[in-house]
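Structure in, sequence out. Go:
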């Protein structure tokens, strides 16, 4: 058992959903979603395009009201911190601000002085490997570096839950792999639990403690959670593990991406 798993406390919980139903204009997209997320746990949400992954993410962080059911996130106040933050597919940086100022932006409204915000922005930049270039402008960074700034900005507010919506899908394969490895590393150094949406099954098995599979929406029915798979592979070098391929294949068959072996 690795350290993160050992540290997980079965009773502690930072995010809960109970029989959640979501939809738009009277049309249900997703229903019967139940979830409990422990501190520092990493859950990936996978499923076919249009199944409702991003919709669920937006509802879990509270941006989208539920049609039915309950959602709870631990919002008990902590100094200089926010309950949650989000990393998007595109980094959404302000081009006219230096990257340290972009990261500091998320710290506004927390009662910190400007100097304190600028100082606090440095640690997360170091965490994502950009500590030596805080004064650069976003346009002088590669796509991967810009996404690292987006991650640093989300980490700067010390969230209890970090929501990530396909954060690596716009990157080239090599950069994507590098950032995946960095996220595995980063987890050892952050207190945040992570909810990670991806359509990449390998990525989900590589990164997560649990993978929630959404599906069953064929024929216009609302989607639901069709399975939640515990990933028990050691976090180190998962790609090379003998069972990695089998777990990926199992999830792919659940989603219907590949036929079941006869
Ligand atoms: N604002 C909206 N108004 C109406 N329908 C919406 C809205 N947002 C999403 N939907 C619908 O809800 C369903 C789920 O969309 P969502 O973006 O959550 O899927 P997804 O699984 O994240 O897809 P993808 O992998 O392609 O990003 C889709 O049918 C989509 O058209």
């Amino acid at each position: 058992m690795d350290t993160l798993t050992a540290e997980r406390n079965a009773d502690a919980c930072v995010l809960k959903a109970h029989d959640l139903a979501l939809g738009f204009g009277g049309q249900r997209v997703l229903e019967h979603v139940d979830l409990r997320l422990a501190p520092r746990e990493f859950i990936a949400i996978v499923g076919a395009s249009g199944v409702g992954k991003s919709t669920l993410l937006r509802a879990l962080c509270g941006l989208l009201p539920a049609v039915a059911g309950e959602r709870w996130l631990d919002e008990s106040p902590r100094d200089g911190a926010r309950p949650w933050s989000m990393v998007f597919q595109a980094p959404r940086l302000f081009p006219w601000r230096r990257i340290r100022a972009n990261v500091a932006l998320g710290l506004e409204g927390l009662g910190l002085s400007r100097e304190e915000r600028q100082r606090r922005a440095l640690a997360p930049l170091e965490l994502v490997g950009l500590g030596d270039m805080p004064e650069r402008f976003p346009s002088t960074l590669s796509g991967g570096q810009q996404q690292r700034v987006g991650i640093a900005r989300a980490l700067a507010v010390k969230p209890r839950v970090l929501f990530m919506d396909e954060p690596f899908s716009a990157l080239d394969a090599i950069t994507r792999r590098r950032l995946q490895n960095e996220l595995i590393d980063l987890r050892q150094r952050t207190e945040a639990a992570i909810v990670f949406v991806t359509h990449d099954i390998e990525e989900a098995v590589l990164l997560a403690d649990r993978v929630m599979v959404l599906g069953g929406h064929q024929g216009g029915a609302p989607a639901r959670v069709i399975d939640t798979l515990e990933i028990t592979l050691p976090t180190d070098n998962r790609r090379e593990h003998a069972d990695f391929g089998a777990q990926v294949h199992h999830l792919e068959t659940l989603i219907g991406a590949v036929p079941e072996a006869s």
